[in-house]
Write a structure and sequence with these properties.
337 residues, mainly beta, eight-stranded mixed β-sheet, seven-stranded mixed β-sheet, 55% strand, rod-shaped
């Protein structure tokens, strides 16, 4: 249930006297102060830290038992309490309600106070009690990832990096694994819930696939984090996962013209080579080199199917589709016509 404040509620920690009825006012002699103050602090089932208690705001309601006075304010929980001033002498019911981030009442208490003219009624620490189930005592983790591909520049593009899933492993302070799950790469950043407060170690691995077989292509150094109760721990920048070089392939390209003719025989001085992953719209690698400078080696490709194209001035062109498995070298010769 969400808590709606009454008319004229004041959302600040300063103190406002609200809605005092003018009828039936109590009149004191000139030698006696007629009004006093109420001072208090708050805690939640003994917890004074608002974050740990899961409380964002506190609603303070002060009602006169017989004089018709009414005061209500919404105060930010970290204020810790307040001094509420200018109440006619008499008995009051003081109600405190602790609201969580959703605006729901998580804690509440009502206590009595007596205000004497010219004095401060110090209620001390008022402890609010939980309503219903205790607020969650767990914390959450948000983590995102990137991949060092094709060379030493990080990319967020999962498809380009060849990653379908990111395996996230979280271990506690005694190295016990408390979370181990493969998350779709495109679902990053991922939020993982229900960690007990404490210190944890996080490991990330980038998983690809080649012809139905999963391959662990990337990994990051394990790193430590602290997770607090009731808080989302956000890793501010995507974690860079580095290549396992032995899982990537290379392509070596040679060429000839109209069968086995050489560059000099056909009068060609340069050729252009494009390597494109099948299904992609742009080459993953391209180079224009001297025709006689062969073979050409292209390194570090995600295991996948590729098209290798070679062209040269004079409308010379040829291509070959290849499968490049993990830790392999594809040695291809392109016949141009």
């Amino acid at each position: 249930m969400k808590r709606a404040t009454g008319n004229g509620a004041v959302a600040l920690g300063l103190l406002v006297l609200g809605g005092m009825s003018l009828s039936g006012c109590i009149v004191y002699g000139h030698d006696r102060p007629s009004k006093g103050d109420i001072k208090l602090r708050w805690s939640f089932a003994g917890e004074t830290d608002c974050v740990y208690a899961g409380v964002d705001d506190v609603v303070v309601t002060i009602d006169g038992r017989s004089n018709g006075e009414h005061f209500e304010a919404v105060i930010s929980c970290p204020e810790g309490g307040g001094l509420f001033t200018n109440f006619i002498e008499g008995r009051y019911a003081v109600t405190l309600e602790g609201l969580n981030v959703a605006g729901e009442i998580a804690y509440a208490v009502t206590e009595n106070a007596y205000v004497s003219g010219g004095t401060v009624e110090n209620m001390g620490m008022v402890d609010l009690l939980p309503l219903g189930p205790l607020p969650p005592e767990t914390g959450s983790l948000s983590v995102d990832w990137s991949f060092m591909y094709p060379q030493n520049t990080a990319t967020l593009n999962c498809a380009f990096a060849g990653v379908e899933y990111v395996r996230v492993i979280v271990s506690d302070a005694i190295s016990a694994v408390v979370f181990d799950q493969s998350i779709r790469c495109i679902d990053g950043p991922a939020t993982i819930d229900y960690f007990d407060p404490g210190q944890y170690t996080v490991e990330l691995y980038g998983i690809g696939q080649y012809r139905g077989h999963s391959i662990e292509l990337y990994g990051a150094q394990p790193f430590g984090i602290d997770i607090l109760a009731g808080q989302l721990t956000v890793i501010d920048t995507p974690v860079a996962l580095y290549r396992y070089e032995e899982e990537f392939g290379d392509i070596q390209v040679s060429w000839s013209f109209g069968g086995n003719n050489s560059c000099s025989a056909v009068g060609v001085s340069s050729v252009t080579i494009d390597v494109t992953r099948l299904g992609a719209t742009e080459p993953e690698a391209t180079a224009t080199v001297a025709c006689s400078d062969e073979p050409q080696l292209f390194s570090t490709f995600v295991p996948a199917d590729y098209r290798v194209e070679v062209s040269a001035p004079g409308d010379w062109y040829g291509y070959l589709d290849i499968g490049l498995g993990p830790n392999s070298l594809a040695d291809v010769t392109i016949q141009m016509n």
